[in-house]
Amino acid sequence: MPEYDEDLFDSSGILNTRIVKFKFETLVKQILSSLSFCEATGFEFIDPAQDWFVPPGTTSVKVNTKIKLKFTKPVNGYHVPHNISVDVVPALRIDGWWPDDTRRKDLCQANDCLIVFTQPQMKYPAESRLLRDSPHVIRAAFKVVKRMSKYFCWYIFFSSHVIKTALFWCMDEMEPTRKRSSFNYSDEVNGDELLLWVQTILRQLLCFTAPDYFPSYFMPKCCQPVWIKEKYLKQFHMHLYQHGLLTYTDLLSLNEQQSRDV
Questions:
Q1: Which domains does the chain have, with CATH numbers?
Q2: Which of 40, 161, 225, 228 is deepest in the core (most CB within 10 A)?
Protein backbone atom coordinates (compact mmCIF):
# COMPACT_ATOMS: atom_id res chain seq x y z
CA MET A 1 0.00 0.00 0.00
CA PRO A 2 1.43 3.44 -0.91
CA GLU A 3 0.83 4.85 2.58
CA TYR A 4 3.17 2.18 4.02
CA ASP A 5 5.97 2.33 1.43
CA GLU A 6 7.81 5.22 3.04
CA ASP A 7 8.09 3.35 6.36
CA LEU A 8 8.70 -0.16 5.06
CA PHE A 9 11.62 0.60 2.72
CA ASP A 10 14.89 2.38 3.42
CA SER A 11 16.55 4.96 1.16
CA SER A 12 18.10 2.16 -0.94
CA GLY A 13 14.75 0.50 -1.53
CA ILE A 14 15.49 -2.43 0.80
CA LEU A 15 12.53 -3.86 2.67
CA ASN A 16 12.84 -3.48 6.45
CA THR A 17 11.38 -6.77 7.70
CA ARG A 18 11.39 -5.65 11.36
CA ILE A 19 9.10 -2.73 10.51
CA VAL A 20 6.91 -5.07 8.45
CA LYS A 21 6.67 -7.41 11.44
CA PHE A 22 5.79 -4.57 13.82
CA LYS A 23 3.07 -3.06 11.58
CA PHE A 24 1.72 -6.51 10.71
CA GLU A 25 1.42 -7.51 14.36
CA THR A 26 -0.24 -4.19 15.21
CA LEU A 27 -2.85 -4.65 12.47
CA VAL A 28 -3.50 -8.28 13.44
CA LYS A 29 -4.15 -7.41 17.07
CA GLN A 30 -6.29 -4.43 16.08
CA ILE A 31 -8.53 -6.62 13.93
CA LEU A 32 -8.71 -9.51 16.40
CA SER A 33 -9.58 -7.14 19.25
CA SER A 34 -12.53 -5.65 17.38
CA LEU A 35 -16.12 -6.37 18.36
CA SER A 36 -16.99 -7.29 14.78
CA PHE A 37 -14.39 -10.12 14.79
CA CYS A 38 -15.80 -11.54 18.02
CA GLU A 39 -19.40 -11.40 16.76
CA ALA A 40 -18.55 -12.89 13.37
CA THR A 41 -16.37 -15.78 14.61
CA GLY A 42 -17.43 -16.59 18.16
CA PHE A 43 -13.84 -16.09 19.33
CA GLU A 44 -12.46 -13.67 21.90
CA PHE A 45 -8.86 -12.56 21.35
CA ILE A 46 -6.44 -12.94 24.28
CA ASP A 47 -3.17 -11.04 23.94
CA PRO A 48 -0.40 -13.39 25.23
CA ALA A 49 1.81 -10.37 25.92
CA GLN A 50 -0.57 -9.36 28.71
CA ASP A 51 -0.11 -12.76 30.34
CA TRP A 52 3.59 -12.07 30.82
CA PHE A 53 3.22 -8.45 31.94
CA VAL A 54 4.84 -7.12 28.78
CA PRO A 55 4.09 -3.42 28.15
CA PRO A 56 1.32 -2.85 25.58
CA GLY A 57 2.60 -2.38 22.05
CA THR A 58 5.69 -4.50 22.64
CA THR A 59 6.59 -6.64 19.62
CA SER A 60 8.74 -9.73 19.92
CA VAL A 61 11.79 -10.27 17.73
CA LYS A 62 10.37 -13.56 16.44
CA VAL A 63 8.92 -13.60 12.94
CA ASN A 64 5.64 -15.11 14.09
CA THR A 65 2.92 -13.48 16.17
CA LYS A 66 1.45 -15.94 18.66
CA ILE A 67 -2.20 -15.29 19.40
CA LYS A 68 -4.71 -16.99 21.67
CA LEU A 69 -8.43 -17.25 21.03
CA LYS A 70 -11.14 -18.22 23.51
CA PHE A 71 -14.50 -19.68 22.49
CA THR A 72 -17.44 -17.44 23.37
CA LYS A 73 -20.09 -19.84 22.08
CA PRO A 74 -20.63 -23.61 22.32
CA VAL A 75 -19.31 -25.71 19.41
CA ASN A 76 -21.83 -28.27 18.16
CA GLY A 77 -23.68 -27.84 21.43
CA TYR A 78 -20.62 -28.40 23.64
CA HIS A 79 -18.67 -25.95 25.77
CA VAL A 80 -14.95 -25.84 24.89
CA PRO A 81 -12.93 -24.96 28.04
CA HIS A 82 -9.49 -24.60 26.46
CA ASN A 83 -8.05 -21.81 24.34
CA ILE A 84 -6.85 -22.04 20.74
CA SER A 85 -3.23 -21.06 20.03
CA VAL A 86 -2.36 -19.82 16.53
CA ASP A 87 0.84 -18.49 14.94
CA VAL A 88 0.32 -15.71 12.39
CA VAL A 89 3.26 -14.88 10.11
CA PRO A 90 3.80 -12.07 7.57
CA ALA A 91 4.96 -13.39 4.19
CA LEU A 92 5.53 -12.38 0.57
CA ARG A 93 3.59 -14.04 -2.23
CA ILE A 94 4.95 -14.12 -5.78
CA ASP A 95 2.08 -15.23 -7.99
CA GLY A 96 2.70 -18.35 -10.07
CA TRP A 97 6.25 -18.88 -8.80
CA TRP A 98 8.01 -21.78 -7.08
CA PRO A 99 11.80 -22.20 -6.65
CA ASP A 100 13.40 -24.16 -9.49
CA ASP A 101 14.77 -26.87 -7.19
CA THR A 102 11.36 -27.66 -5.66
CA ARG A 103 10.45 -31.36 -5.53
CA ARG A 104 6.96 -32.89 -5.72
CA LYS A 105 5.60 -30.07 -7.86
CA ASP A 106 2.67 -32.37 -8.56
CA LEU A 107 1.54 -31.60 -5.00
CA CYS A 108 2.12 -27.85 -5.30
CA GLN A 109 -0.29 -25.14 -6.32
CA ALA A 110 0.71 -21.76 -7.74
CA ASN A 111 -0.46 -19.82 -4.69
CA ASP A 112 1.16 -22.19 -2.16
CA CYS A 113 4.67 -20.70 -2.09
CA LEU A 114 5.13 -17.90 0.42
CA ILE A 115 8.46 -16.33 1.38
CA VAL A 116 8.69 -15.91 5.16
CA PHE A 117 11.16 -13.38 6.59
CA THR A 118 13.43 -15.96 8.19
CA GLN A 119 16.00 -18.59 7.26
CA PRO A 120 16.22 -21.51 7.12
CA GLN A 121 12.82 -22.39 8.65
CA MET A 122 10.76 -21.83 5.51
CA LYS A 123 7.22 -23.12 5.80
CA TYR A 124 4.72 -23.29 2.97
CA PRO A 125 0.91 -23.44 2.85
CA ALA A 126 1.41 -26.48 0.60
CA GLU A 127 2.40 -28.42 3.72
CA SER A 128 -0.76 -27.42 5.57
CA ARG A 129 -2.92 -28.33 2.58
CA LEU A 130 -1.15 -31.69 2.14
CA LEU A 131 -1.75 -32.57 5.80
CA ARG A 132 -5.37 -31.38 5.64
CA ASP A 133 -6.02 -33.61 2.61
CA SER A 134 -4.42 -36.68 4.23
CA PRO A 135 -6.47 -39.63 5.57
CA HIS A 136 -7.90 -39.37 9.08
CA VAL A 137 -5.56 -42.04 10.46
CA ILE A 138 -2.49 -40.12 9.26
CA ARG A 139 -3.71 -36.87 10.79
CA ALA A 140 -4.51 -38.76 14.00
CA ALA A 141 -0.97 -40.20 14.07
CA PHE A 142 0.44 -36.70 13.63
CA LYS A 143 -1.57 -35.48 16.64
CA VAL A 144 -0.48 -38.46 18.76
CA VAL A 145 3.23 -37.90 18.05
CA LYS A 146 2.84 -34.17 18.76
CA ARG A 147 1.24 -35.04 22.09
CA MET A 148 3.99 -37.53 22.88
CA SER A 149 6.69 -35.00 22.05
CA LYS A 150 5.15 -32.44 24.37
CA TYR A 151 4.23 -34.63 27.35
CA PHE A 152 6.55 -37.65 27.17
CA CYS A 153 8.87 -36.18 29.80
CA TRP A 154 10.00 -32.81 31.20
CA TYR A 155 11.37 -31.67 27.83
CA ILE A 156 9.67 -30.93 24.51
CA PHE A 157 11.75 -32.64 21.83
CA PHE A 158 10.35 -31.72 18.42
CA SER A 159 8.34 -28.85 16.96
CA SER A 160 5.15 -29.65 15.06
CA HIS A 161 6.94 -28.61 11.84
CA VAL A 162 9.62 -31.30 12.32
CA ILE A 163 6.98 -33.95 13.07
CA LYS A 164 4.93 -32.89 10.05
CA THR A 165 7.98 -33.09 7.78
CA ALA A 166 8.79 -36.57 9.12
CA LEU A 167 5.24 -37.63 8.32
CA PHE A 168 5.51 -36.37 4.73
CA TRP A 169 8.75 -38.26 4.14
CA CYS A 170 7.07 -41.40 5.56
CA MET A 171 4.19 -41.00 3.12
CA ASP A 172 6.69 -40.62 0.28
CA GLU A 173 8.54 -43.81 1.22
CA MET A 174 5.29 -45.77 1.03
CA GLU A 175 4.41 -44.56 -2.48
CA PRO A 176 6.57 -47.05 -4.47
CA THR A 177 4.47 -49.91 -3.04
CA ARG A 178 1.29 -48.05 -2.16
CA LYS A 179 -0.02 -45.09 -4.13
CA ARG A 180 -1.21 -42.08 -2.17
CA SER A 181 -4.65 -42.51 -3.73
CA SER A 182 -4.93 -45.97 -2.14
CA PHE A 183 -4.60 -44.69 1.44
CA ASN A 184 -7.57 -45.41 3.68
CA TYR A 185 -9.66 -42.22 3.68
CA SER A 186 -12.37 -43.63 5.95
CA ASP A 187 -13.57 -41.48 8.87
CA GLU A 188 -12.95 -44.49 11.11
CA VAL A 189 -9.47 -44.70 12.63
CA ASN A 190 -8.23 -48.28 12.98
CA GLY A 191 -6.12 -48.77 16.12
CA ASP A 192 -3.56 -51.09 14.51
CA GLU A 193 -3.10 -48.78 11.52
CA LEU A 194 -2.76 -45.77 13.84
CA LEU A 195 -0.06 -47.56 15.85
CA LEU A 196 1.79 -48.42 12.63
CA TRP A 197 1.81 -44.79 11.50
CA VAL A 198 2.93 -43.55 14.94
CA GLN A 199 5.83 -46.03 14.93
CA THR A 200 6.75 -45.05 11.37
CA ILE A 201 6.85 -41.33 12.22
CA LEU A 202 8.96 -41.97 15.32
CA ARG A 203 11.45 -44.03 13.30
CA GLN A 204 11.74 -41.17 10.80
CA LEU A 205 12.34 -38.70 13.62
CA LEU A 206 15.14 -40.93 14.88
CA CYS A 207 16.62 -40.88 11.38
CA PHE A 208 16.53 -37.09 11.53
CA THR A 209 18.38 -37.04 14.87
CA ALA A 210 21.30 -39.16 13.63
CA PRO A 211 22.82 -36.38 11.46
CA ASP A 212 21.18 -33.70 13.68
CA TYR A 213 19.39 -31.98 10.79
CA PHE A 214 16.47 -32.71 8.50
CA PRO A 215 15.67 -31.75 4.89
CA SER A 216 12.62 -29.66 4.06
CA TYR A 217 10.01 -31.74 2.25
CA PHE A 218 9.48 -29.51 -0.78
CA MET A 219 13.03 -28.07 -0.81
CA PRO A 220 15.44 -30.79 0.44
CA LYS A 221 18.45 -28.49 0.00
CA CYS A 222 17.03 -26.40 2.83
CA CYS A 223 18.23 -28.24 5.97
CA GLN A 224 16.88 -27.29 9.38
CA PRO A 225 17.67 -28.06 13.06
CA VAL A 226 15.93 -31.12 14.49
CA TRP A 227 15.58 -30.38 18.19
CA ILE A 228 13.23 -27.63 19.31
CA LYS A 229 15.91 -25.90 21.44
CA GLU A 230 18.58 -25.84 18.72
CA LYS A 231 19.41 -22.37 17.40
CA TYR A 232 21.52 -23.56 14.45
CA LEU A 233 22.35 -26.74 12.52
CA LYS A 234 24.09 -29.49 14.51
CA GLN A 235 24.25 -27.39 17.67
CA PHE A 236 23.70 -30.41 19.94
CA HIS A 237 26.16 -32.57 18.00
CA MET A 238 28.78 -29.88 18.51
CA HIS A 239 28.07 -29.93 22.26
CA LEU A 240 28.52 -33.71 22.29
CA TYR A 241 31.81 -33.43 20.43
CA GLN A 242 33.11 -30.66 22.71
CA HIS A 243 32.40 -32.79 25.80
CA GLY A 244 33.94 -35.94 24.33
CA LEU A 245 30.57 -37.67 23.96
CA LEU A 246 29.93 -39.66 20.81
CA THR A 247 26.33 -40.79 21.24
CA TYR A 248 23.10 -39.67 22.86
CA THR A 249 23.38 -42.75 25.09
CA ASP A 250 26.52 -41.22 26.60
CA LEU A 251 24.63 -37.97 27.14
CA LEU A 252 21.79 -39.72 28.99
CA SER A 253 24.31 -41.38 31.33
CA LEU A 254 25.53 -38.02 32.67
CA ASN A 255 24.56 -36.95 36.15
CA GLU A 256 22.26 -33.97 36.69
CA GLN A 257 24.99 -31.33 37.06
CA GLN A 258 26.89 -32.58 33.98
CA SER A 259 23.68 -32.50 31.96
CA ARG A 260 23.14 -28.84 32.83
CA ASP A 261 26.67 -28.04 31.72
CA VAL A 262 26.10 -29.72 28.36
A1: 2-89 (no CATH), 114-231 (1.10.1410), 233-262 (no CATH)
A2: 225
